[in-house]
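Page 37, top half.
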Amino acid sequence: MKNPFLKKQNFLVFLSVLFLALTQISCNNDDNNNDGDDDDDDVPVGTLPPVETKPANTTYLPAFKGQTRIAGIKTETAYTTKAFATGLSSPWGMDNLPDGRIIVTQKAGTMRIVTQSGTVGPAITGILPVNSADQGGLLDVAVDPAFVTNRMIYWSYAFQGDGGTATAVAKGKLSADESKIEGAVTIYKAIPEFNSTKHYGSRLIWDAQGNLLVSTGERSELGSRPLAQKLDAALGKIVRITKSGEPAAGNPFIGQTGVLPEIYSYGHRNPQGIAIHPVTGELWESEHGPRGGDEINRVAASKNYGWPTISYGIEYSGAKIGEGITTKSGMEQPVYYWDPVISPSGITFYSGSLIPEWKNNLFIAALSGQHVVRLVLKDNTVVAEERLLTSANSRFRDILEGKDGALYAVTDGANATIYKIAK
């Protein structure tokens, strides 16, 4: 006998998808009208069907037009994609060295340097021990802005402590022969330690003042989730620290009793991408949702991004998250979300000139989605979405704009590949 509840649920999902499609058509019609915004009139708006065609996991409706399943777009400029470097072992993060080479972390606890011709150098050792179980290991890497004079490298990793594991940040000096890290020391640890091997975050990026922005996960477990809302814990946060690991001057909660002074924003689930907009200087973030509800957020100091109180996803079991609500006063809405998920990891804004129509677009490495996302932005909203590198059939862990203006996207897992996207 057929289950009438399931039949009702399928009908509700159909109505939700139909509503979203009609919403996007309305949005596209609005965007094609003259809105009086001369500064952004040259931004292309999607005119193709949305790239996502699979049914959503929920019947939740977006809070505003264009928040999900926006119209598709196709790059008009001819470009090439090619395997640039191969043989990497579970890479996680990448950053540019001043001379155009790329330094890459490997999950087990080593780094490699990739030359401009795609040659992968030997493993760099001397890195502090990591807990590489499950989602842990050596995570992101950030080259000191003054590397030419101090040769300092910063990285995030899964720290193993007496009370469990934690997202931590360390630094050390790359030796002259580039074979090892010298004087490695941990400068920051996201407290409390927790017995979990999931949801570490974790990305690093420099702000305009030379401080380090660090994303941390809420560690996945039901017992740790509420800490994303607690200001005396560093889980589920973006923190802003100095090169020595101290709270950066100007942080929004400095001086408040019972609040960690390094906190910049909170209410995050598992933020695996952060990037600075090349024009506005604002911080943007990608965040893994549960079953549905992957997010892109425009992050501002002191703001609360809602997890686990609000979410556009559900539990993997199909149960609702908390009260099953998507909005609440005092909590920020994502700029964009996906349902079903694509598992967004590293992100970057394109500021190069090789492909002019990509200027200031946001690019996202998608793990379960197995592609690279291109989001076209206008007035801090998404107006078009495109999927690149779909034929690679690979999970993408990170993406970087190189010194040469090309994009470099690295796959996940054993014998991984860096793909170069250029004109």
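Page 37, bottom half:
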Amino acid sequence: MGPERTVRANRSRRRALLTILALAATGASVVAGAQDGTRIDAPRRRSSRERAHALPPAADLGADGVASRERRVPILLFFDRDDCPYCERALREYLVPMSGEAPWRDDALFRQVEVDRDLPLRGFDGRATTHRALAARYGATLAPTVVVVDADGNLLAEPVVGLLTADFYGAYLGSALADARAKLRH
């Protein structure tokens, strides 16, 4: 095994260990109660504004699906609401850095979906839809929600709902992506 593969294997083990420790430390009942987020149907807190940190917006999931299938990588959909402070934190501290760093930069496609807006979007089936409708399709009722899907939009891992225990959020994301990637490569 070459040095690069050893580093990747060690990172995978480290992510798995962090996930196990997170689950052991918090317990399933505490994790369920630790979902900080903003309900997507909540009254708006402030006017819309551009985010300082963002992922590429979902625009053509059919094209993303083609790329996902060719590269055998999952698609991470980040369901966001523009006045959600938890979303801003998740983007700033976890998702934007992950999307630009190895291994995830090359091993997943990251897309942002605005749950509270009717932005036009081409779905996995090639049909016109909106960001809001896509959120409804995946049952995203709390922002942030992260789902990891295959080229056809099928779930590959359990959704990460809310900004779970912040200390372990990166481990939850890494675990969901690693699970999805393993399913696509087998």
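Margin note: The first helix runs from residue 3 to 33.
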